Amino acid sequence: MVAVRGQGLRIEQGEIVGLIGPNGAGKTTTFNLISGLYYPDAGTIRFKGVDITRMAPHVRCRMGIGRTFQIIQPFENISVLHNVMVGAIFGGGQSGKRPEDIAWEACEMVGLGDRRHSMPGELTAAGLKKMELARALATSPELLLLDEMMEGLTPVESAEVVNIIKKVRDSGTAVLIIEHVMRTVRDLSDRVVVMHQGETLAEGTYGEVVSDPLVIAAYLGEEGEGDTVDHSGH
Amino acid sequence: MVRPVRPGHVFGVLAAGFLALVPLAVDPYLLHIIILILMSAVMALSWDLLVRTGQLSLAHAGFFGLGAYASALACNLLGASWWVSFLAAGLVGGAAALGLGIITLRLHGMYFAIATLAFAEVLRTVALQAKFTGGAVGVTLPAIFGGNRLAAYYLVAAIFVLCLVVSLGLQKSRWGLAFQAIRARQAVAEVLGIDTVKTKLAAFVISSVFPSLVGAFYIHYVTYIIPYEAFSLNTSVSALVMSVFGGIYSTAGPVIGAVVLKILEEYLKSAIVYGYTVIYGLILALVILFMPNGLLGVIRRAAGSGRADQILRWVGGRKRAGASD
């Protein structure tokens, strides 16, 4: 069983949880806490029953926590396959398999198999997003954190990525996604957690949370921008 | 089955043959210059090993001086033979790098550079003030191999080849990939499972053993050293300059930079006795202004996608060619 506890947030194996909330709600901060880039001042983070609150990011990665970043972060000077191989080599991977093979499979899974010898600069925005997903997948995560995967993608590309993420979930991985495109949240999430000002405001199915008066009030607070787009960073 | 002959192998054999035979064909003065070039090449190349992880160090002079003093004192105070004193220099340098690295490698950019600069300054003060170091007078040693310059050449050539092999090996290994990832995006490297602290520490230790060996060689070859020379900021800066001049993050770049700059320096010294440093500085400034990727960058661009480029890629390794499948 895969579980993360903190702010009452909890994720089970084989489930996609959508993390939504207005600007500055603390969604990306939550990711940084779970992946170990930030340490919390209080509280505990548990993964597979182990307290990982004070563990370094690379240890958490090898334990099975993978993530992508909101702003794409490719290693520009090496090929797509080598980018993905970084995850395969250092992220624990699957024992007994060559990192090249793990990386190749990850590229295939996201549909970048024929672009694996390209340099990152030759990929489209969607291609780069897929490469970052493959890089995280190559670490063989049991919990995958995806920060705004759909940002900048066309509807067709988004649909493609939605299918990939569902495949990842079906292989038993727990997936936590931050998304601002509500349609994507609806299509993907088995469960939705709404954050507001650093706290969990509501939790439930997509239908339940969008009709929750508390959630509506929180989003109305920033009315005018609409509920689907958020261009600001976190 | 016939193994394919790769251009890199041909290049390697030619270079090894050149290193082995050239000292037999030159006069003692030229041999001395070649020895200086090889020392510089090791200083530059080993400095580059750390910068590949994104950390710019000014501690190279500190390790150079530390190696020189460690080996000289091992000989003079403990009666060690030359090779034991070299071993001592390497060990002391590596251990010092481990300690310094644990304290300073969490710093980035300018802050790390200043911390490492302070390291060399502190060591110089210690060498000047301590009883056992000989103070401002420095230390002296009898010439290594009874002053046999040819033997000294082969010793420094061996250190150079060792540094070359370590550099090429690192580039082709997982460590090379980890260095690149850390340099490019440290946070991403961390969440992909790279132990950035340990990796940088290892790079720092490896990078620091070589200047310590060069320092040991220097005192044995020149036979004396004073603190101002042993821990001169100039030593750190010239390692940096030669690497940048030739092209950093590569094996070929720092070596090319050391060879070209050392020859240029010696030529200018004899051609313009007074003020040669002005011309030298001018040439440096122009190259760094107009060739941001160093000489190697220019060569790569000129070579385009031809065969020469493949050789350079193998030697330099900045762009990893294709994949291994």
Which helices and strands, and how do they pair?
The complex is a heterodimer of chains A (about 230) and B (about 325).
Chain A: E1 16-20, H1 27-35, E2 46-47, E3 50-51, H2 57-63, E4 65-67, H3 80-90, H4 99-109, H5 125-137, E5 143-147, H6 155-170, E6 174-178, H7 182-188, E7 191-196, E8 199-204, H8 206-210, H9 213-220
Chain B: H1 7-25, H2 28-51, H3 60-78, H4 82-104, H5 109-129, E1 139-140, H6 149-172, H7 174-184, H8 186-191, H9 196-222, E2 224-225, H10 227-230, H11 233-246, H12 252-271, H13 276-290, H14 294-303, H15 307-316
Antiparallel strand pairs in B: 1-2
What can you see in these coordinates?
The complex is a heterodimer of chains A (234) and B (325). Chain A is α/β, with parallel strands linked by helices and 234 residues long. Chain A has a domain of 133 residues: 3-Layer(aba) Sandwich (Rossmann fold), CATH 3.40.50.300. Chain A is 37% helix and 15% strand. Chain A has 9 helices and 8 strands. Chain A starts with 15 loop residues before the first strand and ends in a 14-residue tail after the last helix. Chain B is mainly alpha-helical and 325 residues long. In chain B, helix 2 packs across helix 12 and helix 4 packs antiparallel against helix 9. Helices cover 76% and strands 1% of the residues of chain B. In chain B, strands 1-2 form a two-stranded antiparallel ribbon. Chain B has one domain. Chains A and B meet through helix 2, strand 4 and helix 3 of A and helix 7 and helix 8 of B.
Keywords summarizing the entry:
heterodimer; A: 234 residues; alpha/beta; Rossmann fold; six-stranded mixed sheet; two-stranded antiparallel sheet; 9 helices; 37% helix; 15% strand; globular; disordered N terminus; B: 325 residues; mainly alpha; two-stranded antiparallel ribbon
Q: In a nutshell, what does this entry contain?
A:
With 234 residues, chain A is of the alpha/beta class. Helix content of chain A is 37%, strand content 15%.
